[in-house]
What we know:
By secondary structure, the protein is mainly α. It has a single domain, classed as Hypothetical protein af1432. It is about 60% helix and about 0% strand. It has helices at about 1-5, 25-45, 55-65, 75-90, 95-105, 115-120, 125-135, 135-145, 155-160, 180-195, 205-220, 225-235, 250-280. α4 runs antiparallel to α5 and α4 crosses α10 (about 180-195). The protein is globular, with a radius of gyration of 19 Å. The protein starts with a helix and ends with a helix.
Amino acid sequence: MERRQLRRGSRTPWGVDVERPGPREDWADLLKTCAQRTDEMRAEHRGRAGLDETEEIVFALAQAVEQRDANTGDHCERLSFISVTLGVALGLDQVSLLALYRGGYLHDVGKVGIPDAILFKPGKLTEEEWVTMRSHTVRGEEICRHLKALAPVLPIIRHHHERWDGTGYPDGLRGDQIPLLARVLQIADIYDALTSARPYKAAYTAAEAINIMREETKRGWRDPRVFRLFTRLHRAVISKMGNFGSAERDLVSMRQSLMSLQRSLVSESAALTQSNLQVA
């Protein structure tokens, strides 16, 4: 199903295979849709639709993992929002969008088994430490494997560190072998990691992060089509959501930012139309 949704030469609502940005009018439509769809995913996620008590515990565990590191801030919320925004632009269905939203919280749940000495080490990891760190993908999948409602999220958890050229982990998948949802969340994850401070690095600016991601894509690490879509969405949507590191951190505020921008675009469009009428 995932290959059909993003096969070569296919057209999506935002023309993944087209280099130039879509018409200005598409911005308002996409902003409105992303705001609405993210709000729906948030409500469904908060309502724990279809989740039993054990599955709720897993989400609590995932949030505990995030809270271990004060540097990550609201990483999971930001990641969920950006991933759903990409999913909306790709025209993915409700099940896939919800999987992306939940994947934002659960993708690193396996880090619960990684010692703090490795997870928060400010210097370079040894080869042995890297083996332990890379195990978080398999550990996370194992934690969630037997939970029925989380089945759509398993490919995200296991494969969000695979690389387009096959040099990633844990399975060395390449190209379209990597599940689409994992490729989508990976791009959002990398961007947020680069633009956030970590024990081993300072935060990069958005421009610096995108340049790094562009070089990694040229190197063969990222899906070029998904990255190209991300850069277009960054210009049209993500860069206009406000400062993720400010008080506007929760998804309600992000949604409000999108709706505010959508209104401004509609107003600008109306003003332009009026100006054209006066010229005519």
